[in-house]
């Protein structure tokens, strides 16, 4: 479908996440802002604009603009734009045509609707947005300073923009204000009705409108970024940037420059000033993922940001204030890292102002099948195919699997199964689960079933700790000799641990 993308799965994942994010917007400004952010990120452009036709269908209203890494205050520049005076917009609306220009020339095209800047705009994509009656309701625009091919994004941006126009109509009619909290949670991507998930959603609702720093705890794949985005999209900062930085992705020196920015000449290769992620997220939210892997040298600087609300870029002698909500996330035991001297105790207590522990999928009774159906529905919509049915065997197979990779693993398995399914029903063979993950429990005794559960828990814990028996015993709350006894009794070998870890 998206032949312009070298690796379609990440693009598809990102597109689906943006759809869910937009659906969770609580008002017109939030929905429009999330749309322009999504269009800019999906197309890798510096600018995105959303225009919506007014009730008379004679004027385009500039509803939202993403520029310079954030949603711009469009009210300050005048909302109404008469599209009859802008030939490119007029052509896209009146002719229902996609416009894709890879080398803009100011002598040929009037681009007065684009923000003025020092570097000229080179590439432009205008996508008309259609309603259910196939009438044009607006235009979604993306522009870049680089001469790049943007036409391949027209289909996905058109679908996203049309969805956004429908969401805007619902907000204008007041539908969102009467939606029950459960639907809002589902729109934000928080799916599940288990006791563990209800408790997590209760905590999220408590903190969403506050300025507290949130620490998200949980195993890899439990949805920490989804929760962080839900907190951002549901709060007062929803129209401002939401930026994610993985603290384990960069060495200390590069991570510092990414977060704080630098001034020209700060180090070899710093040929110009560059703003950091704290500045880019100003007014919005910055998610520091894998905070447990942040180097000690940076932890003291992060603590100052949290306490004083100010930063100093590399190579600068001056500090300046910022207004950023920090959300931290980790799958590691920060208390244990504090005890080992690998994480600052003062930073830990500052981050843990409001901790939320996200449950592992195996502890969310009944949620696996709800999530599987949800992911299958979205995958079918993305692939533009009819919804698939579920065989009883496939459902039983998923329900009996421990999912060491949690929701992320389930999502990948379901999307792959939908892609492999040539018929209209998903069967067990469409899911690439390990052979020992599908127990035949019909003829097992209670003791045998309990041993299977224990075996799965022990293997998950050992794999999580890279086979380290001491750390696994500490996490399980048992003596190491007790763990060794249980491993021997359940016939768990080193090869069993490595099989899924690799």
Task: Give a structural overview.
With 502 residues, this protein is an alpha/beta fold. The chain folds into four domains: 8-177, Beta-Lactamase (2-Layer Sandwich), CATH 3.30.450.40; 181-357, Rossmann fold, CATH 3.40.50.300; 361-432, Helicase, Ruva Protein, domain 3 (Orthogonal Bundle); 446-501, Arc Repressor Mutant, subunit A. Helix content is 43%, strand content 15%. It is built from 19 helices and 18 strands. The chain has helices at 8-23, 28-43, 87-95, 154-172, 181-187, 195-207, 224-234, 252-260, 277-280, 296-308, 334-339, 345-351, 367-383, 392-399, 406-420, 446-464, 469-476, 480-489, 494-501, and strands at 47-53, 60-67, 70-71, 80-81, 99-101, 123-130, 136-144, 214-217, 242-246, 261-262, 274-275, 285-289, 310-311, 320-321, 325-330, 354-357, 389-390, 425-426. The strands form five sheets. Strands 1, 2, 3, 4, 5, 6 and 7 form a seven-stranded antiparallel β-sheet that branches. The chain has a five-stranded parallel β-sheet with strand order 9-12-15-8-16. Strands 10-11 form a two-stranded antiparallel sheet. The chain is globular.
Radius of gyration: 25 Å
Q: Count of DSSP helices?
A: 19
Number of domains: 4
Quickly name the level 1 CATH class of the largest domain: Alpha Beta
Average pLDDT: 82
Low-confidence stretches: 1-9, 76-81, 175-184, 438-443
| Percent range of helical residues | 40-55%
> In the CATH hierarchy, what is the superfamily of the largest domain?
P-loop containing nucleotide triphosphate hydrolases
CATH architecture of the largest domain: 3-Layer(aba) Sandwich
End-to-end Cα distance: 31 Å
Structural class of the secondary structure composition? alpha/beta
Shape: globular
Q: Largest sheet at a glance? A: 7 strands, antiparallel
CATH topology of the largest domain: Rossmann fold
Provide the β-strand percentage band: 5-15%
Q: Strand tally, please?
A: 18
């Amino acid at each position: 479908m998206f032949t312009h993308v070298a690796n379609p799965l990440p693009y598809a994942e990102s597109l689906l996440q943006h759809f869910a994010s937009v659906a969770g917007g609580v008002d017109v400004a939030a929905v429009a802002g999330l749309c322009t952010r999504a269009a800019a990120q999906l197309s890798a452009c510096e600018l995105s604009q959303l225009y919506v036709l007014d009730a008379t269908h004679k004027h385009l209203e500039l509803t939202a603009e993403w520029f310079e890494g954030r949603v711009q205050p469009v009210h300050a520049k005048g909302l109404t734009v008469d599209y009859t005076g802008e030939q490119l917009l007029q052509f896209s609306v009146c002719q229902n045509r996609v416009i894709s220009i890879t080398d803009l020339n100011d002598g040929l095209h009037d681009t007065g609707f684009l923000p003025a800047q020092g570097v000229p705009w080179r590439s432009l994509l205008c996508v008309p947005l259609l309603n259910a009656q196939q009438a044009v309701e607006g235009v979604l625009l993306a522009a870049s300073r680089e001469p790049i091919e943007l036409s391949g994004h027209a289909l996905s941006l058109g679908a996203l923009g049309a969805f956004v126009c429908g969401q805007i109509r619902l907000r204008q009619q007041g539908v969102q204000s009467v939606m029950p909290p459960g639907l809002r949670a589902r729109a934000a991507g928080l799916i599940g009705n288990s006791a563990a998930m209800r408790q997590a959603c209760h905590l999220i609702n408590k903190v969403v409108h506050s300025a507290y720093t949130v620490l998200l705890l949980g195993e890899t794949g439990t949805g920490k970024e989804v929760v962080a985005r839900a907190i951002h999209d549901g709060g007062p900062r929803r129209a401002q940037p939401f930026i994610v930085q993985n603290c384990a992705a960069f060495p200390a020196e590069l991570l510092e420059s990414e977060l704080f920015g630098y001034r020209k000449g700060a180090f070899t290769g710093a040929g110009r000033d560059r703003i950091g992620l704290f500045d880019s997220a100003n007014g919005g939210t910055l998610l520091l993922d894998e905070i447990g892997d942040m180097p000690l040298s940076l932890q003291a600087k992060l603590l100052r940001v949290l306490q004083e609300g100010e930063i100093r870029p590399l190579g600068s002698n001056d500090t300046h204030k910022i207004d950023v909500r920090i959300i931290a996330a980790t799958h590691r035991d920060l208390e244990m890292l504090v005890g080992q001297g690998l994480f600052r105790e003062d930073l830990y207590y500052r981050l843990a102002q409001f901790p939320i522990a996200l449950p592992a999928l195996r502890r969310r009774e009944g949620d696996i099948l709800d999530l599987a159906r949800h992911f299958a529905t979205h995958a079918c919509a993305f692939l533009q195919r009819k919804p698939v049915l579920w065989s009883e065997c496939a459902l039983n197979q998923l329900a009996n699997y421990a999912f060491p990779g949690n929701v992320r693993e389930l999502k990948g398995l379901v999307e792959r199964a939908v892609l492999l399914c040539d018929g209209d029903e998903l069967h067990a063979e469409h899911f690439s689960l390990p052979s020992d993950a599908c127990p035949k429990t019909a003829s097992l005794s209670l003791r045998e079933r309990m041993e299977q559960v224990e075996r799965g828990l022990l293997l998950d814990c050992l794999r999580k700790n890279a086979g380290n028996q001491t750390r696994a015993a500490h996490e399980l709350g048992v003596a190491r000799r007790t763990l060794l006894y249980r491993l021997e009794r359940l016939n768990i070998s080193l090869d069993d641990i490595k099989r899924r870890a690799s």
